[in-house]
C-alpha cells in the first residue's frame, strides 16, 4: 500500500505533526481528522493524488494487456487442438482401432480425445499426437475404408537364373506364408537389370495390418530364401575386380621373394 505524508500543523503554531494517508483514500477525502484538529486538504493535493491514482491504473492496464497477449498465445494451440479434435470426431477420418502412420510413428489408435490422439506402436509405446498434427500433416490410414493392404518385397537373383522359375517360386513362397491372402493372388514382376542382379518385385495382400507389417515381410523373405536354396538359385552380392596396370619393380621383388621367419617360410 502506498502512503502519502500530510502535514497537519502550521509553521506559526510551532507544531509540525504529520499523518500518513493511503493514496487510494485521498481522492475521496476532502478533509483529514486527527486528534489535534482538522486540516483541509487543498486542491493541489487532491490533484496530485488523482495523478498518482491514474498512473497506477495505467500501469495495471499495461501489465494486464501484456499478460492477456501471453495467455492468448498460450491458448492458441489448445484451441487449435480442440477444434481439430471436433473435426476428427465429426468426419471420423481417424477413429479408435484404425492403423495409422504419422511421420515415423506407426500403430493403432487407442484413444481420440479433444486435444490429442493416443497411438500404440508395435513396441508397446503410446504416442500422444496433438490433433492439430493429424489435421495439418499427411496421415496414412491403413484401415480407413478397407483392411486390405498390399505389401511389396523387392529382391534380386543372379543373371544365370531361370527367371520364369524364379517368379513361380516367389509366388508359391508367398502363398505358403501365414497371413498372406490367396485372393488377391500374389504376383511377381521383373523390374529391371541391375549392376549385379536381375531385380524383381513380389507383391501380396494382407487384411490385418494391426498385427504388423515388417514381420510378415520378413516371413516372406525367409520363404524365398528357403525356396531359392532348395532349387539352387543364387542371390548375388556386389563384387569388384581390381586390375593393377603398373607395379613398381621394388614391390615386385618383395612379392617374388618369400619371407623367412625362423625355420618357416611365409
- Give the termini distance in whole angstroms: 98 Å
- As residue ranges, the low-confidence spans are 26-49
Largest sheet: 5 strands, antiparallel
Biggest sheet: strand arrangement: 8-7-6-5-9
The percent range for strand residues is: 25-35%
CATH topology of the domain at 146-266: Alpha-Beta Plaits
What is the class of the domain at 146-266 in the CATH system? Alpha Beta
What would you call the shape?
flat
The assigned structural class equals: alpha+beta
Q: Mean pLDDT, as a whole number? A: 78
Your description of this structure?
This protein is an alpha+beta fold and 266 residues long. Among the domains are: 99-141, SH3 type barrels, CATH 2.30.30.60; 146-266, Alpha-Beta Plaits. 36% of the residues lie in helices and 27% in strands. It contains 6 helices and 14 strands. It has helices spanning 23-26, 43-91, 131-136, 163-175, 214-230, 249-256, and strands at 3-7, 18-22, 31-34, 37-40, 99-102, 105-112, 116-121, 126-130, 140-141, 149-157, 187-193, 198-206, 260-261, 264-265. The strands form 5 sheets. Strands 8-7-6-5-9 form a 5-stranded antiparallel beta sheet. The protein has a 3-stranded antiparallel beta sheet with strand order 10-12-11, with helices on one face. A hairpin with a 4-residue loop joins strand 7 (116-121) and strand 8 (126-130). Helix 4 packs across helix 5 (214-230). It starts with a strand and ends with a strand.
Keywords:
five-stranded antiparallel beta sheet; SH3 type barrels; Alpha-Beta Plaits; alpha+beta; 36% helix; 266 residues
